[in-house]
Every structure is written in structure tokens, then in C-alpha cells.
């Protein structure tokens, strides 16, 4: 299925996208919508259409499956993203990565700033870059500001893996892919990463592939 027409008004484009039902098609790297940045949301969709769009993002994220999805990843250049992480991983992985469950939430017009100077590095993947992962150094903690889908203010500090999810999804809204921030020498196919670098932290990968960690 082709992405929505670029020249159509946003509400019309979203209606067209939702008409097919089910999970939405995810846009892959190389499509300009992933690189152009997004419009701040200021009512372009209206409450009812926004609610339908948010639900479609939720369905699509869970079906993929993923722990976050930004509107540009389904071809819609609006500053909206969703996140959710059941964190169903082994305890040693959860502890090493600071991965704790996150409820479903909607981020509207989000922005983040670092909390402190600490950075951590782990392998990341992206639904728009299927089949590949790479190590990305990110802020260990961030303060997220924005609103939810009902216009209620968000002002929350995230740490560990939730902070990584927030940064990854908000970056999408600025036209940034995780590969822009990744250590090039760490780039691995998903199969190679599973076979070789499934440890909770990327120290072994850094030593073997020749890159530094923060």
C-alpha cells in the first residue's frame, strides 16, 4: 500500500490511511517523511479523528511488535508518538538496561532535555529500519515535556530504558533516525546480533568490533 498523498490535507490523508483498517503500513528508511520533521499538533485532526489515529498507532505498534511508534513512521508528519513497553525480558537484562514496564501513553508535541551528564549505550533497532540494529549512546535520564492526547500537560523524568524509548520516538519527530546517532562499527544484522551480541550490555561487541562505549 502506498503512503498517503503528500499534497492532501492532513485530516484527509489520515482518514484515507485509516480506511483500510487493521495495522497501518510502516514507512521504511529512505522515505522523505522520515526526514522532514513534523508539524506541531494544534487540532489538525479534531478530537474524534485524533482518537482513531491514536488507536491505530497503538494497534500498529503492538502488531509490529515494538515499544514505540511515531506518526511519521506511518507517513503522517504530525508531532505525535505512542510508547508502551511490557518489559518482558530476563531479569538480568532488565537490571542491566534499567528496563521497567511502561504503560501505554500518547506523546503530543513532545520535547526532551537531558537530566545530568550520564550516558549509556545499548543496541537499538527501529521498525522503520527492519533487520538491523546498532549501538547508540543516549542520555541516561531525560525530562520529557509535552501533552497527552487530551491536552493534559506532561512533565516527567524518565531514566534507563524508558528514557531511551522517549529519545528514540521524539527523535523521529525531528527527522532523526537512530542510525544518525549510532556507532557505525556496531551495525549488525538482527540475526548476527541475536547470535553474537545477546548479552545484557554491549561490552563484548565493543571489544570485538572495535568501538568505544561512553
From TrEMBL:
GO MF annotations, alphabetized: metal ion binding; peptide deformylase activity
Residues the record marks as active site: 169
CDD domains noted in UniProt: Pep_deformylase
Enzyme Commission (EC) number: 3.5.1.88
UniProt cross-references to SUPFAM superfamilies, sorted A to Z: Peptide deformylase
Catalytic activity: N-terminal N-formyl-L-methionyl-[peptide] + H2O = N-terminal L-methionyl-[peptide] + formate
EC category name: hydrolase
Alphabetically ordered keywords of this record: Hydrolase, Iron, Metal-binding, Protein biosynthesis
Family in the record: Belongs to the polypeptide deformylase family.
Protein name per UniProt: Peptide deformylase
Source species of the chain: Streptomyces argyrophylli
Amino acid at each position: 500500500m502506498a503512503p498517503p498523498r503528500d499534497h492532501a490535507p492532513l485530516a484527509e490523508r489520515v482518514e484515507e490511511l485509516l480506511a483500510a483498517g487493521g495495522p497501518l503500513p510502516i514507512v521504511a528508511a529512505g522515505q522523505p517523511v522520515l526526514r522532514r520533521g513534523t508539524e506541531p499538533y494544534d487540532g489538525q485532526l479534531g478530537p474524534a479523528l485524533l482518537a482513531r489515529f491514536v488507536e491505530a498507532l497503538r494497534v500498529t505498534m503492538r502488531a509490529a511488535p515494538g515499544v514505540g511508534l511515531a506518526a511519521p513512521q506511518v507517513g503522517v508528519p504530525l508531532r505525535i508518538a505512542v510508547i508502551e513497553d511490557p518489559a518482558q525480558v530476563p531479569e538480568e537484562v532488565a537490571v542491566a538496561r534499567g528496563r521497567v514496564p511502561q504503560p501505554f501513553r500518547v506523546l503530543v508535541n513532545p520535547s526532551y532535555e537531558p537530566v545530568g551528564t550520564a550516558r549509556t549505550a545499548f543496541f537499538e533497532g527501529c521498525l522503520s529500519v527492519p533487520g538491523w540494529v546498532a549501538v547508540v549512546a543516549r542520555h541516561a535520564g531525560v525530562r520529557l515535556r509535552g501533552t497527552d492526547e487530551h491536552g493534559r500537560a506532561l512533565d516527567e523524568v524518565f531514566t534507563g530504558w524508558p528514557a531511551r524509548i522517549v529519545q528514540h520516538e521524539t527523535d523521529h519527530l525531528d527527522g532523526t533516525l537512530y542510525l544518525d546517532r549510532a556507532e557505525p562499527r556496531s551495525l549488525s544484522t538482527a540475526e548476527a546480533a541475536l547470535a553474537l551480541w545477546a548479552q545484557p550490555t554491549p561490552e563484548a561487541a565493543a571489544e570485538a568490533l572495535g568501538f568505544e562505549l561512553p
